[in-house]
Every structure is written in C-alpha cells, then in structure tokens.
Amino acid sequence: MSSITTDVTETTTTHDLDIRVAAKNFDSSQAADGNLKVLEDIALQLPAGEFVSIVGASGCGKSTLLRLVLGLDTDYQGSITLDGEPIRGPGLERGIVFQDHRLFPWLTVEQNIGVGLRNANFSARHKRELIAEHVALVGLQGFEKSFPHQISGGMAQRVAIARGLVNRPRVLLLDEPFGALDALTRARLQVELQRIWQKERITMLLVTHDVEEAVFLGDRVVVMQPHPGRIRRIVPVNLPHPRNRSDPAFIRIRDDVLADFLDPTERGPADVRPAPPAPAAAPVFPFSGERLRFAW
Fold it and tell me: Which residues on adjacent β-strands are paired with residue 224?
C-alpha cells in the first residue's frame, strides 16, 4: 500500500471525519528496535451521518484508533480532521461509549446523563430538557431517579449511550459497547442503537469483535488485521433498515466478512471491494464446525 502523507496541513473537507494515520507506535522493550508498531497506513473517511463498523481480532489496534479520534492520544504520524479541522485533543463534538458503562454509582440515571453536559454552554433549563429528551430516547422513563445498582446492566448501558449523545456530538465513538452483556440483551440493544442512529443521524464509529454486530449496524464494515494494525478491506452493507439477521443477503455478507478470520491465508493483500454477488441459493452458514473453532 502506498505511503500516506503525514502533513497535517493537507486535509480533506469532503468528509466530516477524515482519518489518515501513517503510523502509531508504542515504546516496548520486547520490540526489536524498542518501538512496537500498532497502526500503519490507516485511511478512512466518514461522511456525516454514516455508521461505520470496525471489526478485527484482539491486538489489531481498533481501540487505539478510537483513542486517536477522541483526541486522548496525539502522538502518531498522520492527521485526523473533523470538518477540515485537525483533532488535537478531546472535544465536545465527539462522544464515546465504552464497554463498561462507567456510571457514577452515587448519581441517579438523570444525573449520570447530565454529566455529559457539565462543560456545555447551556442554561440549566435547557440541560434539564436535554436530559429528559434523552431519557425518553433510550426508553428509561420512570427510572430517572434510580441509581446504577437499581437497574440492569442493559439499562445502565442505555444510560451510557444517552450520556454520550446528550451533548449533541457530531461523532459518537462506540468501543465494544455491548461486549459485557448477555446475548439476548446485546441483541436488543443493537436494535435500540440502530433505532437511535436512524433518529439522530449523527456519525457513528463502532469497534467490535462481533462480525454479525458489525454487519447488523454498519453502512460499511472495516476489516482490520494485526501486527501492525491496518485495514484489510472495506465491505459495504447495502441492506435496508431495520435489518433481518435471517435474510440470505445479510447472512452472505456476514459470512464473507467472517471468512477473513476463518481462512486468512485465502485472502489477498489489503483491498477495498464490494460485497460478493448473491448466489442462486445462499447456504445459511457455509463453514464447518471444525473451522469455526479457529474464528478468534
């Protein structure tokens, strides 16, 4: 892949979020030269309102990339811009939801959501209105005065999503937001997040290990590979919302992405290509149980 320019003055204004990371290294005594290369040649553009999923095995730099977009780490080669402006630190125009809800146990549901407005230049009345609006958005009416220990894990994660959205960010970053939940709660919240995204239409960037989740939520799925972390390919998901996990077209795209992790030697170098055409009769899952044991 050709080298990506590291000149931060050369920005692209045709996309709301433009990520160009030539290299990101960490100091490491185990690396041959003392530098562990974590990311390399990352080029990704997100138009306003798009939902992009990043999927990859552990160690491919997914969460590190989110930290760079959030502005928590600026020590890298390249540039990340939002509306043409370089990101040089945290900002109110970018929100994040973590795998752990990280709610304050001594605050109520509405108070935890209100934390997202602490640095916002709004009147007290407007803040109350925004909190009430986002309590309703995530379906937690009647639980405003509850404390985190009084609600379920799935409800707590909905509070975290509301806290990430309440400040009206232009970009919401999601770092394995449902990874700690049981399968049923996870599926329900995926549907809930899809509904919220369709209503709010803000740019969302999701990091996940779950291929089905990536396809279910994303307009595009970015497949990453490790050592160092880089984009293997980008798969468009041209399916209408709401999505049906049993749809043969959905299954076909899911299985195509999953094949990168089941049989990595069958793929060529990193590329960007469309999803494969629909076969006459798509099998529900064309991989044997023996091969599935090596998925992750």
Answer: 231
Q: Count the alpha carbons within 13 Å of 211 in the hemisphere toward its beta carbon.
A: 20
Residue 170, both tokens: 């232009």
Tokens of 115: 């934390």
Per-residue pLDDT tens over the stretch 21-78: 999 888 766 666 667 888 999 999 999 999 999 998 888 889 899 999 999 999 999 9
DSSP conformational letter for 241? S
Question: Among 89, 113, 68, 71, which residue's Cα sits nearest to residue 207?
Answer: 68
CATH architecture of 47-75+91-280: 3-Layer(aba) Sandwich (3.40)
Question: Quick one: tokens of 71?
Answer: 């502005």
Q: At 2, phi and psi to the nearest 5?
A: -70, 155
What are the extents of the domains in the chain?
Answer: 47-75+91-280
Give the confidence band of 292 by pLDDT, cuts at 50, 70, 90. Answer: very low
* Rounded alpha-carbon distances, angstroms, from residue 110 to 73, 134, 145: 30, 9, 7
Residue written as tokens 């998901």?
A: 237
